[in-house]
């Protein structure tokens, strides 16, 4: 097939299905067709073409796209059209990929269900009554529903891996610093990473090849050479030491989720891996630490939406009331909750008790992993304690929603890479995901393990 035929097929499918799934906030059919034509010319002119040439994908709406509206699913950025491309977009455009549109998400990436979008919730392609997970729920639903061949998401505390798990696809959060954050609208800068959501591990490795690499425009970018991740697409786990941390089988975990993970552990054993019980004792504090640190950073990052420099403005009698009106009207309730939590944690009287303590826990969580990785090569856990939940069932219980992140946030605190891949289906027909955690910069190790299992 030609790139134009391929783009046509995806656009037609989006036309017929996205009114039900609501995976996209903005569809870019015209630019997609132009890009497809350009890709076809390139394919005709050159024999050997880059992997992504002419392959249609979708991009989470917090990644800046030159000339294409980028909303972060917030009314605050309803009409924001970036004057530049994020670093990852530059890399993707160089390959002549075809961008079908920008995907729905929890507002400013705060949430785990995509219900916090200011526009509409996204539905899970496996069952429309259920959430796709979040915050990259639009990207996950687009790939799982066949509305994009690949997608980019961002992961601050699980937002790539948890929706991948809920939608039965593959999602990878790279090591902090592996992928440039330049042009990713910041949520919590010390935790955010961009990564791929794909149908399988092979596509994941290929997308990773495109987006990784040092970038001088991101001060936390890691100066490490990017390996060719497709070289890790080999089936070999003989002698691989896989750590199983008891702490990740948390209270309230679905029985079926735990069972699926244990079956996967047995499969790895049968393939020659060595299974080793490990302990990551500070895991139980990770969610609490995350929900102090991430909102604290978010508070700072979101202070720029003041009605002056970026985004929308709601007028008032003077400058203070203009700012107050703007932020009151244009931020959703979860964003406001986080701003309040963050300001509280950072305020003079509470800084030592909360923010500083959370930073210390962050170090302890990291040290737990360091110790474990002296004995094991990778760590295998559930991605989330449950399968997808029903739309509306948890949205009024933020604490319950935060506990969903128990297995994913510790990695972000430690900066480690993690991949989520399907490992079963629940009795109600919903996908179950497992997570494989790697040493810093060892995306190759987790890709290899995931590929072997898949
Ligand atoms: N669910 C987490 C939160 O609400 C993670 C979000 C993310 O990774 N962007 O903060």
UniProtKB/TrEMBL annotation:
Enzyme superclass (EC): ligase
Chain segments annotated as coiled-coil in the UniProt record: none
Family designation: Belongs to the amidase family. GatA subfamily.
The reaction(s) this protein catalyses: L-glutamyl-tRNA(Gln) + L-glutamine + ATP + H2O = L-glutaminyl-tRNA(Gln) + L-glutamate + ADP + phosphate + H(+)
Domain Amidase: 5-445
Keywords per UniProt: ATP-binding, Ligase, Nucleotide-binding, Protein biosynthesis
Keyword Nucleus: no
Originating species: Pectinatus haikarae
A GO molecular-function descriptor: glutaminyl-tRNA synthase (glutamine-hydrolyzing) activity
Active-site residues (renumbered): 60 (charge relay system), 135 (charge relay system), 159 (acyl-ester intermediate)
InterPro entries in the cross-refs: Amidase (IPR000120), Amidase_CS (IPR020556), Amidase_dom (IPR023631), AS_sf (IPR036928), GatA (IPR004412)
Lineage: Bacteria, Bacillati, Bacillota, Negativicutes, Selenomonadales
Keyword Nucleotide-binding among UniProt keywords: yes
Domain of life of the native organism: Bacteria
Record function comment: Allows the formation of correctly charged Gln-tRNA(Gln) through the transamidation of misacylated Glu-tRNA(Gln) in organisms which lack glutaminyl-tRNA synthetase. The reaction takes place in the presence of glutamine and ATP through an activated gamma-phospho-Glu-tRNA(Gln).
Pfam families: Amidase
Listed PANTHER family: GLUTAMYL-TRNA(GLN) AMIDOTRANSFERASE SUBUNIT A (PTHR11895:SF151), TRANSAMIDASE (PTHR11895)
Name of this protein: Glutamyl-tRNA(Gln) amidotransferase subunit A
Alphabetized HAMAP family for the sequence: GatA
Classification via PROSITE patterns: AMIDASES (PS00571)
Quaternary structure (record): Heterotrimer of A, B and C subunits.
EC numbers: 6.3.5.7
């Amino acid at each position: 097939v030609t790139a134009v035929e391929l783009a046509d097929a995806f656009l037609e499918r989006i036309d017929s299905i996205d009114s039900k799934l609501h995976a996209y906030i903005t569809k870019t059919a015209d630019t997609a067709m132009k890009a497809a034509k350009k890709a076809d010319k390139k394919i005709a002119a050159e024999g050997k073409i880059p992997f992504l040439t002419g392959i249609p994908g979708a991009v989470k709406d917090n990644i800046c796209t030159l000339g294409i509206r980028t909303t972060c699913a917030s009314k605050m950025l309803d009409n924001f059209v970036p004057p530049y491309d994020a670093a990852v977009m530059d890399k993707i455009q160089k390959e002549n990929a075809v961008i079908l549109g920008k995907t729905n998400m929890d507002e400013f990436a705060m949430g785990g269900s995509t219900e916090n979008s200011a526009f509409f919730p996204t539905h899970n392609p496996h069952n429309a009554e259920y959430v796709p997970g979040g915050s990259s729920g639009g990207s996950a639903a687009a790939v799982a529903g066949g509305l994009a061949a690949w997608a980019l998401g961002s992961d601050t505390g699980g937002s790539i891996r948890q929706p991948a798990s809920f939608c039965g696809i593959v999602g990878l959060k790279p090591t902090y610093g592996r992928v440039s954050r330049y042009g990713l609208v910041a949520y919590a800068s010390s935790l955010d990473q961009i990564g791929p959501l794909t149908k399988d591990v092979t596509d994941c490795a290929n997308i990773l090849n495109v987006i990784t690499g040092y970038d001088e425009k991101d001060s936390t970018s890691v100066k490490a050479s990017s390996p060719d991740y497709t070289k890790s697409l080999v089936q070999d786990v003989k002698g691989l030491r896989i750590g199983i941390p008891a702490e990740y089988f948390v209270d309230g975990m679905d029985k079926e989720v735990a069972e699926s993970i244990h079956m996967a552990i047995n499969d790895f054993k049968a393939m020659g891996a060595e299974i080793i019980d490990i302990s990551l004792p500070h895991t139980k504090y990770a969610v609490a630490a995350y929900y102090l640190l991430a909102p604290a950073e978010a508070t700072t990052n979101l202070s720029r939406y003041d009605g002056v420099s970026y985004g929308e403005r709601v007028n008032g009698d003077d400058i203070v009331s203009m700012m107050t009106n703007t932020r009151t009207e244009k931020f959703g309730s979860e964003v406001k909750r986080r701003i309040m939590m963050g300001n509280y944690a950072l305020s003079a009287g509470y800084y030592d008790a909360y923010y500083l303590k959370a930073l210390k826990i962050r170090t302890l969580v990291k040290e737990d992993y360091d110790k474990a990785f002296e004995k094991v090569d990778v760590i295998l856990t559930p991605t989330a304690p449950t399968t997808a939940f029903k739309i509306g069932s948890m949205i009024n219980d933020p604490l319950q929603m935060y506990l969903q992140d128990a297995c994913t946030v510790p990695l972000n605190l430690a900066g480690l890479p993690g991949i989520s891949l399907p490992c079963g289906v629940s009795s109600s027909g919903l996908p179950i995901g497992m997570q494989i955690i790697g040493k810093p910069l060892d995306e190759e190790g987790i890709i290899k393990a995931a590929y072997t299992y898949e």
